[in-house]
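Hello forum,

I keep getting stuck at the same step: I have a sequence, I want structure tokens, and every attempt I make locally crashes halfway through. Rather than fight my setup again tonight, could one of you with a working pipeline run this one for me? It's a single chain of 258 residues.
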Amino acid sequence: MKGNVAIITGSGSGIGAASAVMLARRGWNIVINYASRADNAKAVAQACEEAGGQALLCKANVAQDADCRRMAAEAMAKWGRIDALVNSAGTTKFADHADLEALSGDDFLNVYRINVVGPWQMTRAVVPHMKAGGRGAIVNISSGAGLRGTGSSVAYATSKAALNAMSLSFARNLGPEIRTNVVCPAMVTGRWWREHLGEEKYEAQFTNFANSTPLKRRVNPEDIASTVVWLIEGADAVTGQVIVVDSGAALGAPVRRK
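Reply #2:
Ran it on my machine without issues. Output:
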């Protein structure tokens, strides 16, 4: 796959960054997208180049259609091809699900603009180039919250459920050239939860999570990235699948053995 090109939104940190570096190690050239944290994105771009790939930094807000189209155009101008898209950019507003006054209509719209409209616009921007090239792979980063109605807020959970449904529509309608799949992580270690919870609560919550799963381990960005890479490179007969990566959390607590 050396020389292939992937656009990864939200790749300045977390799952997006891990996916970028993992693909770069396999010879891919990567568009590193960020909205605000330029220093983080530059560090990821440097890591990609040290890993053997080329990197193109692109500041863009996926909620803006013009930014999405510009990102695709910049990739085409530099490399002349787009082989994969990973929609990893995401946002939330933390709010108690039981408190129906905790979110406003604008809160919902702000979350949906990034988590649903953004992937729609990015897909629309890259599809003509993928079809012209004869093949492409799209991987949308969703969440187990979209399957269970849990997570950081009602707006977040429902936005991820919408992303799942949209991905199935893409899978039905963008073939045979383009495959579309979804990865649904559980709680993933990293900045997002650490900044929200604080260090002490972060450690306690992730320890509790790990202890309640059959695999007795946390889920980190590299766990998700390895699934992303497989869906892009090694899953030619796979499309329209919603893949849960959660250390078995969806199964419930492990059975106690006497």
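Residues 5-245 form a domain with the Rossmann fold fold (CATH 3.40.50.720). If your local run keeps crashing, start a new thread with the error log.
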